[in-house]
Amino acid sequence: MVEGPMTQGAGRGSDVWHGGAGVTASGPVNSGAMGPGAMGPGAMSPGAMGPGPAGAAEPRPEGYTPTRRDLPVIGAAPAVPTPTLVDTPSPASAGGGEQGPLYVVGDVHGYLDELRAALLNQGLIDTEDHWIAGNARLWFLGDFTDRGPDGIGVIDLVMQLSAEAAAAGGYCKALMGNHELLLIGAKRFGDTPVGSGAGTASFQAAWLLNGGQRSDMERLQEHHIQWMSRLDAMALADDHLLVHSDTTAYLEYGDNIADVNDAITEALTHHDADETWDLFRKFTKRFAFRDDAGAMAARELLDTYGGRRVVHGHSPIPYLLGEVGSEDGEDAAPQVHGPHVYADSLAIAMDGGVTMAGKLLVSRLPLPA
């Protein structure tokens, strides 16, 4: 999500990046984005998270395809903290058992303590951060890092809960936000110049301008990168179309959910700076569902990918409502009490603006009438 002065135009327009600094016409980008299937159904061993050669596409054995979630990532196997398994099929899904309640989490942005409190309040974890929700289903909408103090801690918790929820018969899954793309790019490409469409920028500059925390980069390991790079971009759960960004850019990658997820996963395996930058740029777009044509844009996504409502993060609810708070604390904190339903009730915004002293939202779906 972009925190700071923002263009109030339609979400289909892209942010404009200026030379070197990686700044948008509307201010530094701090948005949310995407990527496919680390949470898919195949089981992975810790060694499956090993990296390929830095800066090079991962070698593929014959028959490898990004739609096969049960194949390991090829490469050497680093020591991986446990539990970080995210591909273990849950007993419920494997055996066709009854599914539990569905929850979604908005943008976390490194606010680990606030996330723990919100999950505890919903009865999803205990005071020791362990999953206690049985066969419940939990989706994170992306943007785990940047701006807040402990983005890597957030990622580690989500990975841990993924394993614990699967063992209990539920699941904990996540979508890729644009800040996952930003962090992947900063780690892989650093100051490598990328064509921004309005000059030259770099992932490193954009990451720092958008709240990149050096402590996160110091603690970032290859298994974190592998996990992020395999997250899905979108999913359908109980007639809710889950995405990170309130944009129609998803339509550029396929006309069904599987194709979109596979296209984005495939792009990230190329280890190409410009291709990754293009993904990041497109998924910083926002406000597609906010203005007069918003309901039409939401309906276009729903007609293409299914579902009755789009559920997204990325654009903070205070921005959607025109109640932008100051990040220096001089203004009163924005009043966010829960998800924001808009666009003729076709869209639900879940980013409560935790980075601007708003609220980190964890909500059960469907929302009460």
UniProtKB/TrEMBL annotation:
InterPro entries: Calcineurin-like_PHP (IPR004843), Metallo-depent_PP-like (IPR029052). Coiled coil: none annotated. It comes from the Bacteria. Residues 101-317 form the Calcineurin-like phosphoesterase domain. Gene3D superfamilies: 3.60.21.10. Residues 1-69 are annotated as: Disordered. PANTHER family: SHEWANELLA-LIKE PROTEIN PHOSPHATASE 1. This is Metallophosphoesterase. It comes from Streptomyces chitinivorans.
